[in-house]
Write a structure and sequence with these properties.
single chain, alpha+beta, 2 domains, 7-stranded mixed sheet, 4-stranded antiparallel sheet
């Protein structure tokens, strides 16, 4: 079946056009082409694509006839849901850059104002969050040598559909001491996330039942021997509401320039938004967001 272009210019149309381009590339075409009973050069076969996706047995979807209409609507750009896009991304194994572009076409990042929504690649493979972050305050302090000295986080967590017993925390350095000042106890575990060598398990004082909330306060004390990246950021794979970030510099080592930035990736390479900011009278930069979702936000600086 030939997928025709249309005059529409909405998100579904843009995603459909990009999917057609991707599935025409040799590394993806051979995956669906072998499921085609009859195929013409230069044309996508909707049933073959549906058969391939069903053969991947993703999310319990194994009936190609049930998938056919969803695939047709996605490829002709009439309707693409997030669930359907996940099927394409995980089924064909698109690259991280291709995945990010598809999500941004479907749901463009919003980085203006106090509500920030991005399109982290993790969205396609992420599972629904078991907790809601109702508020979070990050206070990051640098010492006279310009290295991070300590960091404190205060947050309110609410359990969603299931009881919660712990919160997983990660840091991008292993040179830290971690303590809980309110809400639980801590256990350090081997990390399972590349680039984040420190993994902590914060066990709540008592399990949270669905709908219950608790106040947590915990602290990182750093012992860097080499300067880390000149930035502090908060990663939000799931929505964080009422987020406040403060970075305080020592008067002995003040930055020459500070930027507030929003990044679209975990490596801080894709800058979605930036603006220069000035420290206040106590050498602190501060920003409050009503929400942060599928993005990375924080401050970066130069000496």
């Amino acid at each position: 079946m030939n997928i025709a272009e249309t005059s529409r210019t909405g998100p579904a149309t843009r995603v459909g056009a990009h999917l057609r381009d991707l599935l025409a590339q040799p590394e993806y075409r051979h995956k669906w082409f072998r499921h085609a009973e009859r195929a013409r050069a230069g044309q996508l076969n909707v049933l073959a694509v549906a058969r391939f996706l069903a053969s991947r047995d993703q999310y319990g979807v194994t009936d190609s006839s049930a998938l056919r209409d969803r695939v047709r609507r996605a490829l002709n750009g009439s309707l693409v849901s997030a669930e359907t896009l996940r099927l394409f991304i995980s089924g064909f194994g698109f690259t991280q850059d291709e995945e990010r572009q598809l999500w941004e076409l479907l749901d463009p990042p919003t980085v203006s104002g106090s509500a920030v929504r991005g399109a982290l690649p993790s969205r396609s493979i992420g599972t629904p969050s078991q907790e809601s972050v109702l508020s979070l305050v990050d206070e990051h302090v640098l010492g006279p040598d310009g290295l991070p000295l300590h960091h404190e986080t205060t947050q309110v967590i609410r359990a969603n559909g299931f009881p919660l017993e712990h919160l997983a925390l990660y840091a991008d350095t292993g040179e830290i001491a971690f303590s809980v000042e309110r809400g639980g106890s801590v256990e350090r575990l081997p990390s399972d996330v590349p680039g984040f060598p420190a993994r902590m398990c914060l066990r709540y004082d008592r399990p949270l039942q669905p709908g219950e909330s608790t106040l947590l306060r915990y602290r990182f004390d750093f012992a860097y021997t080499e300067p880390p990246q000149r930035l502090f950021s908060r990663v939000a794979r799931h929505p964080i509401h009422n987020l406040s970030i403060a970075v305080t510099f020592a008067p002995e080592r003040l930055p020459s320039t500070v930027w507030w930035r929003v990044w679209g990736d975990l490596e801080h390479q894709s800058v979605l938004h930036q603006e220069q900011v000035e420290p206040d009278g106590v050498h602190t930069v501060f920003r409050h967001l009503s929400s942060l979702e599928d993005a990375v936000a924080g401050f970066a600086w130069e000496w």
